[in-house]
Amino acid sequence: MHNRSDQFTKSLLRDGLSLVSAAETEVEVLAATQKIDVYSVPDPARESERAAMGLLGELSAEPSLFEPFHGTPSLRQVRHCLRKQLTWHHELERRARSAARSVAPDEDTDTPPQPTVAFPALVVISPGRPETVLDAYRCDPVQAGVYHAVPGLVMRVVVLAELPRTRTTLRLLGSGRRLREALTDLAALPDDTWEKSVATPLLVHFRHGIQEPTTDEEDDVSAEIRAWFKEYEQKLRAEERKEGRDEGRAEEAARAVLTALRVRGIAVPDAARERILAEKDPEILERWHERAIVAASIADVLPELS
């Protein structure tokens, strides 16, 4: 997956899953020249956050390989994913055995420990309904747009075209009308929702969804989406300018503190200098500057370092 749309897809899955999991993209399967698009391991400490993520949270409740497709996958393509799933489980078992040996190196090496490693789930994300795949692996529907294969495979198939129009970030992985619907729904969400905080920067970065051809009846919706993108980009630039000004103020204030200490002939240890230069809050630096003007030692300015 190398084009802009595919990179957006992997980035969206990775960043969304990173809120509740240890997620990484393009995980190398060492036993073969294969890469997992996104691999996610749930964080038990963030169970409540995962529950609030809807379908993506449900799919990431166990260690999982996520394999999104830009076109509806064939049986051959899904078999390739299943090979990655099996090979990756073998690699996880190998790593677990190696870790067990390192903890107990004096044990009999003729009977190496066999730690239990959970078999990772495979989540195939398809824009359309892959009939041959659903039939071949006897996939049963568990909810709208989501199918489970026979239990031994631990494979889930998500059909984007069948997902309901609800708050599911996975709909952003679609294209055409479905993507525009997802973008419209995303724009309507409050700014502090996790979907908006994760997806919007990626959409702007990849210019995803605003350069696709539209039909006449979609022009109004597309124009609304482009206006939202433009507004968000302007907001980002304004925040960047403000951050730049704040950094400039903080640097100037830090130099003022060091100058006041030098004028008073107070030695400034390296730790204190680094602490002053690292501070980014102008108000804290202003208080330090007021202390430095009348200080007799560095302890009068930064008592925590005395």
Structural class: alpha/beta
Q: Return Rg in Å.
A: 26 Å
Oligomer: single chain
Number of helices: 10
| Largest sheet composition | 7 strands, mixed
Q: Widest sheet: strand order?
A: 1-2-3-4-7-6-5
Would you list the SSEs in sequence order as H and E?
HEEHHEHEHEEEHHHHH
Low-confidence stretches: 213-218
Counting DSSP E segments of at least 2 residues, the number of strands comes to: 7
Instruction: Give the % helix.
Output: 40-55%
What value does the average pLDDT take? 82
Strand content: 5-15%
Give the distance, in angstroms, between the N- and C-terminal Cα atoms: 55 Å
Morphology = flat
Brief description of this entry?
With 306 residues, this protein is an alpha/beta fold. It has ten helices and seven strands. The chain has a seven-stranded mixed sheet, with helices on both faces.
Describe the structure.
With 306 residues, this protein is of the alpha/beta class. It is flat and about 80 Å long. A hairpin with a 6-residue loop joins strand 6 and strand 7. The longest helix has 45 residues, at 219-263. Helix 1 (4-17) packs antiparallel against helix 7, helix 6 crosses helix 8 and helix 8 (219-263) runs parallel beside helix 10 (282-294). Residues 213-218 have low confidence and may be disordered. The chain has 10 helices and 7 strands. It has a 7-stranded mixed β-sheet with strand order 1-2-3-4-7-6-5, with helices on both faces. The protein is 50% helix and 13% strand.
